[in-house]
Design brief:
Oligomer: single chain
CATH architecture of the largest domain: 3-Layer(aba) Sandwich
Helix content: 40-55%
Distance between the termini: 77 Å
CATH topology of the largest domain: Rossmann fold
Number of helices: 22
CATH superfamily of the largest domain: NADH-ubiquinone oxidoreductase 51kDa subunit
Structural class: alpha/beta
Strand order of the largest sheet: 2-1-3-4-5
Number of strands: 14
Largest sheet: 5 strands, mixed
Number of domains: 4
Length: 532
């Protein structure tokens, strides 16, 4: 085995590929060979490091220096200064431990600061297309533990219940309880489904999890299938996620080859098969029953509940549906135990949460922090603060179907209970940060336009209501409205909440009501400025 003095990690995801990461890798390999450094420097493809919008990135270990916007031109500077001379290439944009803070109270700023990672723990350490790498870093330990210690499905479910893990897809329903419903349902054939559709604007955490550590999802699906009594599973992936699909399929093929999937897993009497299904781009298919209809080859319409999927799901058979991030917690909980997992987060919101930070911040991207971390810390520490030194105005928390939080709520803790007290939701984990120049009316207009387009039209309340809201905000933006129209928007959203068939129509109350209550002056300015 070769001992290398340094490793150069090259994060490969959809964003870096579009920025030219493959070409940079070829150039990097060529330059390392030209400098006769092949025996000293190891180049490794990895998954995401969480940073977006910074072009091609390379991370030099063990120095923990990350270079951004790497090009063929400045690559030579990195090689000459850092790899050969052993000092940081100051002329290239970079971050490292001790990076200059944006605000005094934060000693370490940016997405490269230390994080408590459970879901993303291996994402930037392994080659995501190598099962040997995954096994070397502890992959499939949860599956091995279950079968080597003969842990029963019921005991697996109890462990998940005891962990306090709640769904990370939006609703926050207790995962162990959901599994127990499917386990107890009558039926010889049952199914396990992973919802990887991820159509929420501003959310890309599931994509980066799948791109960075696809085997973790495979392992979680095996454990979940075993627990609920399913021998077949489906991963329903958003069709645009080409790299995720490629890596998940490769992970499935490798797991089959290693007898971690398929017939008689690890020479036991449990068999489990996995199949990928591509989504066709409908936002409503993020709702579990619409997703199930789509899997069956139908148009993705939400079903009336009850019956719930646990009793009558895919092909009217007991089915359990979990989100990617939810499942990605499972292997570590099973291997390390529920009591270990409960050490993180709060008493009622255990574990960690993966957030996507977007908008007017210095470091947009992906982070994983303990439940209960204050919003202020996420924005000003991990996100690096407001871009250009401007003032904070609002954060849209939970995706487009989330809540506009004003400056007075910057210290709210990001967990289920704290956000509920502030009439907000964790939702998809997206945090869209807006500076002082942002017009909330324009932001809400974009959201309403999206929902009007994505409404499936099955129920009239949502089909008509979304367009009524859109027409009202059109009038407000043009100055062709009165103040009563602002309140009318809230009334329509409340009616949609009470009467819509699925969460698409029900959830508009959150962005509409929070925008009007917290930023009413923005609406009044539109009306008054145009009418004067």
């Amino acid at each position: 085995m070769s001992i290398y003095r340094a490793h150069i990690l090259l994060p490969i995801d959809e964003g870096t590929i579009q920025s030219g990461a493959i070409e940079i890798k070829k150039e990097l390999e060529k330059r390392i060979e030209e400098e006769n450094l092949k025996e000293e420097i190891k180049i490794l493809e990895t998954g995401t490091i969480g940073v977006i919008g910074k072009g091609v990135m390379i991370v030099v270990y063990p120095d923990k220096v990350t270079y951004y916007n790497v090009t063929k031109t400045n690559l030579n500077n990195i090689i000459q200064e850092h790899i050969i001379k052993g000092r940081i290439a100051e002329e290239v944009e970079h971050s490292y431990e001790g990076h200059k803070p944006v605000e005094k109270e934060y000693k370490n700023v940016g997405l490269t600061r230390e994080q408590q990672r459970i879901v993303l723990d291996k994402c930037w350490k392994i080659d995501p297309e190598s099962i040997d790498d995954v096994l070397a870093y502890g992959g499939y330990r949860g599956v091995e533990k279950i079968f080597s210690e003969s842990i029963s499905p019921e005991a697996v479910i109890e462990e998940i219940k005891n962990s306090g893990l709640r769904g990370r897809g939006g609703a926050g329903f207790p995962t162990g309880l959901k599994w127990s419903f499917t386990r107890a349902a009558k039926g010889e054939e049952k199914f396990m489904i992973c919802n990887a559709d991820e159509g929420e604007p501003g959310t890309f955490k599931d994509r980066l999890i799948m791109e960075g550590d696809p085997h973790k999802l495979i392992e979680a699906m095996i454990i979940a299938g075993y627990a609920v009594g399913a021998n077949k599973g489906y991963i329903y992936i958003r069709g645009e996620y080409e790299l995720s699909i490629k890596r998940i399929q490769k992970a499935i093929d490798q797991a089959l080859e290693y007898n971690l999937l398929g017939k008689n897993i690890l020479e036991t009497n449990f068999s489990f098969y996995l199949e990928i299904k591509k989504g066709a781009g409908a936002y409503v298919c993020g709702e579990e029953t619409a997703l199930i209809d789509s899997l069956e080859g139908k148009r993705g319409y939400p079903r009336i509940k009850p019956p719930f999927p646990a009793n009558k799901g895919l092909w009217q058979k007991p089915t359990c549906v979990n989100n990617v991030e939810t499942l990605a917690n499972i292997p570590e909980i099973i291997y390390k135990g529920s009591n270990w997992f409960k050490k993180f987060g709060t008493e009622k919101s255990t574990g960690t949460k993966v957030f996507t930070i977007l908008g007017h911040v210095e470091y947009p991207g992906l982070i994983e922090v303990e439940m209960g971390t204050p919003l202020r810390e996420i924005i000003f520490s991990y996100g690096g603060g407001i871009k250009g030194g401007k003032r904070f105005k609002a954060a849209l928390v939970g995706g487009s179907a989330g809540v506009f939080l004003p400056e007075r709520l910057l210290d709210v803790k990001m967990d289920f209970e704290s956000l509920d007290e502030s009439k907000a939701v964790l939702g998809s984990g997206a945090i869209l940060v807006m500076d002082e120049d942002t017009d909330i009316v324009d932001m809400l207009f974009s959201i309403l336009k999206f929902f009007a387009h994505e409404s499936c039209g099955q129920c009239s309340v949502c089909r008509i209501g979304t367009h009524q809201l859109l027409n009202l905000i059109y009038g407000i933006r043009r100055g062709q409205a009165q103040e009563k129209d602002i309140d009318q928007m809230v009334k329509i959203a409340e009616t949609m909440f009470d009467m819509s068939l699925c969460p698409l129509g029900q959830s508009l109350i959150m962005p509409v009501k929070s925008a009007v209550e917290n930023f009413r002056q923005d609406f009044l300015n539109k009306i008054q400025n145009k009418n004067n």
